[in-house]
Automatic annotation (TrEMBL):
Signal peptide: none annotated. It is a multi-pass membrane protein. It comes from the Bacteria. The chain crosses the membrane at residues 12-35, 47-67, 79-98, 104-126, 138-159, 171-193, 214-237, 249-267, 279-300, 306-329, 341-366, 372-391. The gene is tetA. GO terms for molecular function: transmembrane transporter activity. This is MFS transporter. InterPro entries: MFS, MFS_dom, MFS_trans_sf, MFS_Transporters, Sugar_transporter_CS. GO terms for cellular component: plasma membrane. It is found in: Cell membrane. Residues 12-395 form the Major facilitator superfamily (MFS) profile domain. Its main location: membrane.
Amino acid sequence: MIIDRTSGTRRLGYPAAAGVFAVGMAGTTLPTSLYGLYRAQLGFSELIVTVVFAVYALGVITVLLLAGNVSDEVGRRPVLLCALALSAASALCFVFEGGLPMLLLGRVLSGFAAGLFSGAATAAVLELARPGQEAHAGFAATAANMGGLGCGPLLSGLLAQYAPWPLVLPFLVHLLLVAGAAGVTWFLPETVGTPHRLHRLRPQGLRLPPEVRGVFTPAAVAAFAGFALLGLFTAVAPSFVADTLGDHNLAVAGLIVFTVFLGSTAGQSLTERIGVRRALPGGCLVLVLGLLLVATSLAVTSLPLLVIGAVCGGVGQGLAFRAGLTAVGRAAPPAHRGGTISAFFLVAYLGISLPVVGVGALTLVLGLRGAGLTFSACLIVLAVAVGLYVLRHPPADEN
């Protein structure tokens, strides 16, 4: 039940919550275009880049396990404000960066923020929708997530390439955005009817309400495969562009990462028309096509093919991701929606973290191109398997 404090807060509605969600998620990918600069400044390897990225994902997973359902108890607004505070603290770590430990701390804090945003912000956007707006709100939630993730590398790449203080200015800009988002969050209506104080945190595990268990497995496995592709682009695509394809423009690197998330948003926009039942296996098929294009681009050293593969893979990921999130959100009872959505994101973030560290390790033996080709081949096999699985166990479309 939505508590309508004032007519002004009511008018904010789900678009305002989606804007807050996008700002928060943009901060989590802001360092992506800057990893090459950090490598040159601090002298670490591509493996360390992927470890720094995985530390972020570890922070996300930790929060989802410990506090995935906390917004169901204390309310959406307090959790969103806490997530914004963690996002600001992460940005400050990068502003005053003094070496690898501060980078790691900043990424952990960013992961904590993303973990809180994933469940609480998604639930808030969905619950702020008025009758008849449910489909639009569902797209707004997933588009804010992916759009925010895509805008982070684009913003930092443009500022680092064409503005002064490349390792500081992107985070100062994000601090201003976080301050504005906090102001908006303060005036959002609370959507939890009877919030209460949380007495203690305890591991939540992956306990799911019975109503959602049947649909959760195919949706979460498809999300795992799609997020693995996102992890590849977010963690190491700038290095691929610079070292393998020979383009050292940071704005170009940020734009390429942005295209995969833009493709994801486009895929999400098509899900409602296609239907959840067809979007899950269809998304896996398109994801396989995108991976084939990415692998070909690395084999023949083609930047245009990499961009096309990024868009195509992003569309496939978006189709499968929104279909899965929609199916899980429909099946989850309101009292457990935040926790269920957090469990869904937990599986997805396992996909975005573990395989990417493997890529980093492979670069030490095979180099960037060989590691990228090996990763693409493994992910193609996984996506095909997932596609066959969801063809056999599809979630039902809403009647």
